[in-house]
Amino acid sequence: MFVERIAGSHAVPVLTRVGGRFALTATGVGLVLLAHAPPEVQEEVLAAPIERYTPHTVTDPHAVRAMLADTRGRGYAVSDRQVTDDALSVAAPVHDRHGTVVAAVSLVVRHGTAASTALAPLVRTSARAISRALAQPG
Asked: Is 119 within the bounds of a domain?
């Protein structure tokens, strides 16, 4: 579920909305959450048909598994034009005080305006700051 969305006046249009849900396999946030979900949850999601939103949407379960492994390995997910033809999302995990991934934060920009490798440190830093705040007592 999307908890908050902050958008500038020239933000790329997105299909997600506060309080809404979207496919775990298509969004940056969804990929982060799925990458850190228990194996049985991953298998349940990947056993179901994966909806195609654009020609770039990854629908092959094997390819999605590789994306999940990449997400875990590098510490962030990339969804490039998987939901809309003009959006690039980079997302990073938010951990609770026990190290469990409990949420994700993302930055969505217009495809072609920035490289995911340039956005990743910004998103990861934000996710770490939120994680630190969650770890504080009280």
From this structure: yes
Q: Which residue do the tokens 């920035």 mark?
A: 114
Domain that holds residue 93: 28-135
Please count the structural domains in the chain: 1
Q: What is the pLDDT of residues 66-114, one digit of tens each?
A: 999 999 999 999 999 998 898 899 999 999 999 999 999 988 888 888 7
Q: What is the CATH number of the domain that holds 55?
A: 3.30.450.40
Query: To 5 degrees, how large is the angle CA 40–CA 97–CA 121?
Result: 85
